[in-house]
Amino acid sequence: MVKIILVVAEHRDGALRQVTYEAIQAATLSSAENDQLHVAVIGHQLESLTEPLSSIDAEKVYLIDHPDLQQYNPEAYAAALKQVIDASNPDGIILGHTAIGRDLAPMISAKIDAGQISDVTNIENIDDQVVFTRPIYAGKAFEKKIFRSSPWVVTIRPNNISIAEPSDGKAEVENIDYAKPASLRTVIQNVVRNTSGKVDLSEAKIVVSGGRGVKSADGFKPLQELADVLGGAVGASRGACDADYCDYSLQIGQTGKVVTPEVYIACGISGAIQHVAGMSQSKIIVAINKDSEAPIFKIADYGIVGDLFEVVPLLTEEFKKVLG
Amino acid sequence: MDIYVVMKQTFDTEEKIIFEDGKVSEDGVQYVINPYDEYAVEEAIQKKDELGGSVYVIAVGPDRTSEALRTTLAMGADEAVLISDERIGSDENTISKVLASYLGSKKFDLILGGYFSVDNGAGQVAIRLAQLLDIPHVGSITKLDISDGKANADRDAEGDLEQVEVTLPAVFTAQQGLNEPRYPSLPGIMKAKRKPLKQLNLDDLDIEETELSPKTARTALSLPPQKEAGQFIKGETAEQVKELVEKLRYDEKVL
């Protein structure tokens, strides 16, 4: 039987987010040869997405474009997505494990009475069964899970599933008129875009992270400069957040975010278990710390024992030189 | 105000994970209130202090969970309920249905929970619960104001801030930064001993056994590949930096 996998696309500033391409790959990994890919796009003024959407090898793209969907509103988005689900009739639904996906997926799962596997980092086909791997205890361990019923819902962790090659799209685009729910109890009054123009921490390829050793909010400046040169994002340990050197939204660890960048540069971070849980799956870990006995060096690929306030600015200069 | 908190007891975040007989070993483990749920408990108590009313904490979990519930009573919650039954399992869908079945017969204005649990980390139960009760929710909040039957909440969306207004009753999930959870005081601990802590099982709830069949199953458990300690880069700072940049660019080809 032909199955349908529906990917819920995410877009930002008129472009599809990287996690959407990863979700499309996740759909391929969780389907058999003749299964169909459908894509749902919810928002407003979606014209700029026509081109990126046309390079997706989907059977169908559903667009719901309405001024009320300009900003993410849980109730409005869930209602819109339910309309797409009714039209698409999918066996599986895949979203990113992002601010929107983490919020929207459980709503939809409850609405359609589906099982959900959250924060998936790997998908494989074992004996004709699709098996999803996800971290537990923030990555101190991993579990493999399967679904016992259909339809199912999955959210995938950004940066873990390699993206699909672009192809010649042949998707038929279908516009669906947004049917506004009769009672909308949620109003988004304002959105403050703190992250505008910045690299998202969970999608960043490079993360420069600071701990208590950064000593003050100002101490994060050299880290930000290094991150800027490398096109990366700044993160922090719980110690730095608790000491008010930075905002909690930067916290990496078992409380906070889990990141898996290509390069993680830990500056003045001792390496408490709860922090390591949030970053130990990074591809390359660099640690800079005054204390040669700091536990962070036990998991670092490269360690520099030294003062971060000397090392980090020199690193920034050196990268500026070699990266032009 | 009738304020409910849905809570889970978790491993302390400093615990290492060890497997025994194909399961995560619970030997000698320190348990805590899930850190995100602790913000929810604190917020519930603050709202009660501000607006009057009662705080009820509910958990689904094994018997040991009563210890965490007792702590919430010591913090200032009024009543606690533990729903403990081996038939419930650990599927998020099932747990949310059990909670909805309990709460369905109650009158509530606010339901608070953590943004996610630091053990399972799925972040589904509170939001599913809101859907099952047909009330709105705001996830990952860092600020909550209540007035005139409405709530204004700040939602942290990957660093962006969304200011959201919802009508009550509603569910909120607590993000770091919402408040600073209190430590139970000695008088609080003494008082908690006399506060009601009820234990229920499925037979006390109006829920069909068929609704409890899990929709997902775990097939395997593994530890992540152990990261080996790498190398220290030695020398003067300028040399160290040069060498590191070269290694990242030419050996690892990551930059």
TrEMBL record, chain A:
FAD binds at residues 212, 237-238, 251-255, 268-275, 289. Its cofactor is FAD. The keyword Flavoprotein applies. Binds 1 FAD per dimer. The keyword Flavoprotein applies. Residues 5-192 form the Electron transfer flavoprotein alpha/beta-subunit N-terminal domain. It comes from the Bacteria. Keywords: FAD, Flavoprotein. Pfam families: ETF (PF01012), ETF_alpha (PF00766). Gene3D superfamilies: HUPs (3.40.50.620), TPP-binding domain (3.40.50.1220). SUPFAM superfamilies: Adenine nucleotide alpha hydrolases-like (SSF52402), DHS-like NAD/FAD-binding domain (SSF52467). One of its GO terms (biological process) is fatty acid beta-oxidation using acyl-CoA dehydrogenase. GO terms for molecular function: electron transfer activity; flavin adenine dinucleotide binding. Belongs to the ETF alpha-subunit/FixB family. This is Electron transfer flavoprotein alpha subunit apoprotein.
Automatic annotation (TrEMBL), chain B:
CDD domains: ETF_beta (cd01714). Coiled coil: none annotated. Pfam families: ETF. Keywords: Electron transport, Transport. One of its GO terms (molecular function) is electron transfer activity. GO terms for cellular component: cytosol. InterPro entries: ETF_a/b_N, ETF_b, ETF_beta_N, Rossmann-like_a/b/a_fold. Residues 21-209 form the Electron transfer flavoprotein alpha/beta-subunit N-terminal domain. This is Electron transfer flavoprotein subunit beta. It comes from Gracilibacillus orientalis. The lineage of its organism: Bacteria, Bacillati, Bacillota, Bacilli, Bacillales.
